[in-house]
Amino acid sequence: MKKNIFFCSLLILLSFFFCSFLQAQDRLTGKSFATRSVVMAQHGMACTSQPLATAAAIDVLKKGGNAIDAAVAANAVLGVTDPEMNGIGGDLFAIVYDAKTKKLYGLNASGRSPYNLTLDILKQNGKQFIPFSGPLPVSVPGCVDGWFQLHGKFGKLPMTDILSYAINYARNGFPVADEAAFEYAHLKDLYGKNPNVQRVFMPNGAAPKRGEVFKNPQLANSLEKIAIGGRDVFYKGNIAKTIDGFMKKNGGYLSYKDLADHKSEWLDPVSTTYRGYRVWELPPNGQGITVLQMLNILENFDFSKVPFGSAEHIHLFTEAKRLAYEDRAKYYADPAFAKIPVDELISKSYGIERAKLINMQKASPYFTAGDDKALKGGETVYLTVADDEGNMVSLIQSNFAAFGSGMVPDSLGFFLQNRGYLFSLQEGQNNTYAPHKRPFHTIIPAFVTKDNQPYMSFGVMGGGFQPEGQVQVLMNIIDFGMTIQEAGDAPRIEHEGSSEPTGKASEGVGTIYLESGFSPESIRSLLQMGYKVAAGTPGEFGGYQCIKFDAKQHVYHGASDPRKDGMAAGY
């Protein structure tokens, strides 16, 4: 019986991947899977997941703004055009390379849980996880404070100019692009009974469709107030009071005090090296150091003779992911509430020890997190912008799930995030829920330096997939010699079944999901090694943007993921 299941699975997978395996070369240059050329420019570059946002960023640069101004402008536009992915009801993280000081700065603009919501309240009625939607997973939105922190430290143009692009699109309308239209098609079933969702996002009784011109005057008014009045309008003014009243009316706990007490945190990015490149991430409460842990494990294996897409490549990548994600589930949390051994987790010595656990011949049936005593010894948008002065910004912003919590405060025109869903309700864990605590976060900006010079600003959106996506991009460039566009175009690998910071237990080996483009031989070998292998679902493999800096020529190289609606542009 088991043999029959094995061969049936094999036949299905082989037939699924056969056509892509025989794909011909359609472009004059590059890999067979390459979709477009790298964009190159000398003075400025912007890469986002929506052309209108990219165009706004480039316009800001041409008007004398810097990369930070342009990044905020682009993010604000994305909140208008893609409310399913991001907006001022969500959180933000950024890494900024400042050309004047020649230094990297990290910003954690994530919000905290409500003061008045307790673990006991959340565990009522035997709940094992925080609800995915509604008022309970709502935490303080950090985005607006993040904008003003970035602008206050580095910005040049007035915020009225920077936010004018988003205000214009919200008030006067814009044509809905493909990805947003795809998500809007599910809005009625998800949150269509919510009167504010109907009023703002279904003004004619149906969600906007591809190519329809959509307007959001409520959001335009909110953005205009923020542009004129500053961040306090959102956290201490009328917007805060409106959110407070809306949450009280709808059984929520987020209050005026939660908003008024909010503040972002400037911090130093942390790093490791990978074959001569230094990769930078932000420390927890985000999952960025997962990337560094995976790289430290993978650096112990020689990929010079391992072909891209081979079973060996996929096997080593997957096992490194499984090892790092067990630590992610156990240790990552708000550092104000838990002691996290960051230096030990990202150390080379720890990476060597974890790499020893990988069996080269087969999938290990089960991995656990590293012993803390041993350690002591030893749905989202991403964008990146660079300017003529040499400043570079790596920025990521999110509502968490599509349309966040589904909660749209009266008259404000935006969704509140549901990031609180990622807390654990199991007592005694690093990420266990507590009032005024930042939840575990999935959104992570990244940066790479080489020889102490800025080399690459990049990110891969996609929830818990983001570390997997970032590591694959880096391996594609460093180990497999791809251009930054090819590195994003290449077929991707996703493994599911690891332990989660929410308290969800490991599923053992789990399942490898593959995009089309991997060979039947690799899939067959993976099955023989004990993996479950399945075809991936479109939309589950993230979205990538990247700017690389050629210091010798002083040229920016830009890349944008074909899985999204966006583009790279420069001048």
UniProtKB/TrEMBL annotation:
Pathway the protein acts in: Sulfur metabolism; glutathione metabolism
Entry keyword Signal: yes
One Gene Ontology biological process: glutathione biosynthetic process
UniProt keyword annotations, A-Z: Acyltransferase, Glutathione biosynthesis, Hydrolase, Signal, Transferase, Zymogen
Chain positions recorded as L-glutamate binding sites: 463
Family as reported in the entry's similarity comment: Belongs to the gamma-glutamyltransferase family.
Official protein name in the record: Glutathione hydrolase proenzyme
Organism: Ginsengibacter hankyongi
